[in-house]
């Protein structure tokens, strides 16, 4: 019998709790205020992000066959070491995503840094290798365009075109054009989530299975209707998890 979401999540997170002497049930229902407890609460959010890929309609593939296969492999590998690695990786990705989102929405740098502190807290107790952080940094490439005003190797948005061609926008600089900025932020968000999501999927299903569906996966920047529809739904999932993320983040801010 296939396990439901909460069962899978329990199987994923219990070893991560126990490695620090925590009780999964207590941390889920009435978490303690200690540093390691908060780190675990953040990692639980990474687990929730990963959980989405076990559903065929939430697996980022353009064919039903690849979606079904990928989701089935994700369910099977969810409680493995690869699944735990992927959950912690997505936790750090969420920290970066929340920081970028707050900055781009006009929050103060100091307010946005609370999410960087969350990532640092998690790293102390659930460490990742440098290469994992390099992937997360690479995923931020389109956010960086808004800071550097340099177009990547390929023009992918109206903001890019305005940087390359000053006559494209009625404004003196694309950063002054609200429509171009909003459109580019949509691209930056989906590019980030696509990059880290595919890496997490590879961790949980393994290299061989990933290779079997790779050609059908939605690549970062895919502008097909199916991909755009998928990443709109994916953003909704990230926003739902962000609601849970805010609870330990707020506690961290006042600690």
Describe this structure in words.
With 255 residues, the chain is mainly alpha-helical. The protein contains 12 helices and no strands. It has a domain at 5-127 and 204-253. Helix content is 71%, strand content 0%. Helix 3 packs across helix 6. The longest helix is centred in the last third of the chain and has 29 residues, at 225-253. The model has no long low-confidence stretch (mean pLDDT 92).
In a nutshell, what does this entry contain?
The protein is mostly helical and 255 residues long. It has twelve helices and no strands. It is globular and about 60 Å long.
Describe the structure using short key phrases.
255 residues, 71% helix, 0% strand, globular
What is the number of beta strands?
0
- Computed CA radius of gyration, to the nearest angstrom: 19 Å
- The topology string of helices and strands comes to HHHHHHHHHHHH
Unreliable spans are: none
Structural class: mainly alpha
Q: Kindly, what is the distance between the CA atoms of the first and last residues, rounded to a whole number of angstroms?
A: 44 Å
* Overall residue-averaged pLDDT value: 92
Tell me the fraction of residues in β-strands, as a range. Answer: under 5%
Reported for the largest beta sheet, the result is:
none
Classify the helix fraction into a percent range.
over 70%
C-alpha geometry: globular
Report the total helices: 12
Task: List the SSEs and their pairings.
Layout: H1 5-18, H2 24-29, H3 35-51, H4 64-77, H5 81-104, H6 109-125, H7 130-139, H8 141-148, H9 158-164, H10 178-205, H11 207-213, H12 225-253
